[in-house]
């Protein structure tokens, strides 16, 4: 311990060597830093907030910083830190009240939900706004038991960073498989020529749009495509659209240890070998 420091010097512990007017400056500095922290948290996006709102994260950081320094820095007066903590709590109460009474303030502080999937198709603008990749969305869908995009009617990235998914209650249409994870087992990729000659539903490997065609001929409701066989998003790679990728995997690999006993494919319709064409 330094020789200049007198233990239990109450004047130093509570006020330090600064004039009393410096307390007013602390209030101003705390308010500025709190608002700046709140703005930065909004800019970083909801992905890293771990289901905490930006306001809650700002409170945790502000209180933690204010409480830590006076615990072991003798030059930081207790009264200054206590004032900072009181101002932070006061700003939190004020902001929470403004969030309730003003929709504009709520939108700034909390953000708005973002639509990521509509009718089995990824929304590129939504992914960009949410700062999420396609693989990030697939990981969150698998955590909720979704096997393919066609089963998803709507998916929203909520204000707290969670994903809300609405699926078809019965008989979902085929779509882009999200299981198994593509890093472990990528879906079967079809080139332009093979996709044009394919008989059955195809899913775009970028957005999940499903094209119903037979031997390259689209029909009503099919995905927009040009003469090169590209999807409306510009992707030219396709994969067979499935209603249950795991059932199809079991049918294709009957000797797999996790395959239940079955005399044939467990998933009919679009996923049967006759519907999806030769492998």
Please describe what this structure looks like:
This protein has 279 residues and is α+β, with helices and mostly antiparallel strands. It has three domains: 10-110, no CATH class; 114-167, bsu07140 like domains (CRO Repressor, 2-Layer Sandwich); 192-276, no CATH class. 41% of the residues lie in helices and 12% in strands. It has helices at 10-14, 22-44, 54-72, 78-101, 103-110, 124-130, 134-143, 192-196, 245-252, 273-276, and strands spanning 114-118, 121-122, 152-157, 163-167, 199-204, 210-214, 217-218, 238-240. A four-stranded antiparallel β-sheet has the order 2-1-3-4. It has a four-stranded antiparallel β-sheet with strand order 7-6-5-8. A hairpin with a 2-residue loop joins strand 6 and strand 7 (217-218). Helix 2 crosses helix 3 (54-72), helix 2 (22-44) crosses helix 4 and helix 3 (54-72) packs antiparallel against helix 4. It is elongated. It starts with 9 loop residues before the first helix and ends with a helix.
């Amino acid at each position: 311990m330094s020789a200049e420091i007198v233990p239990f010097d109450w004047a130093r512990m509570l006020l330090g060597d600064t004039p009393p007017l410096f307390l007013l400056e602390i209030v101003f500095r705390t308010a500025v830093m709190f608002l700046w922290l709140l703005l930065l948290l909004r800019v970083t996006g909801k992905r890293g907030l771990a289901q905490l709102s930006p306001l809650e994260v700002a409170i945790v950081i502000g209180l933690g910083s204010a409480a830590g320094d006076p615990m072991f820095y003798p030059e930081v007066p207790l009264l200054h830190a206590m004032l900072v903590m009181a101002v932070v709590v006061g700003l939190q109460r004020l902001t929470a009240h403004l969030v309730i009474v003003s929709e504009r303030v709520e939108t700034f502080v909390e953000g708005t939900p973002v639509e990521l999937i509509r009718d089995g198709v990824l929304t590129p603008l939504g992914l960009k706004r949410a700062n999420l990749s396609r693989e990030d969305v697939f990981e969150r869908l698998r955590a909720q038991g979704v096997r393919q995009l066609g089963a998803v009617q709507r998916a929203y990235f909520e204000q707290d960073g969670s994903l809300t998914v609405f699926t078809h209650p019965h008989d979902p249409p085929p779509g882009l498989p999200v299981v198994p994870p593509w890093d472990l087992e990528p879906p079967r990729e079809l080139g332009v020529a093979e996709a044009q000659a394919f008989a059955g539903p195809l899913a775009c490997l970028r957005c999940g749009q499903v094209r119903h065609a037979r031997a390259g001929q689209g029909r009503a409701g099919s995905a927009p495509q040009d003469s090169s066989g590209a999807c409306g998003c510009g992707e030219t790679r396709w994969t067979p659209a499935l209603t249950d990728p795991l059932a199809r995997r079991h049918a294709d690999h009957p000797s797999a240890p996790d395959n239940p006993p079955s005399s044939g494919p467990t998933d009919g319709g679009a996923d049967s070998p006759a519907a999806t064409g030769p492998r």
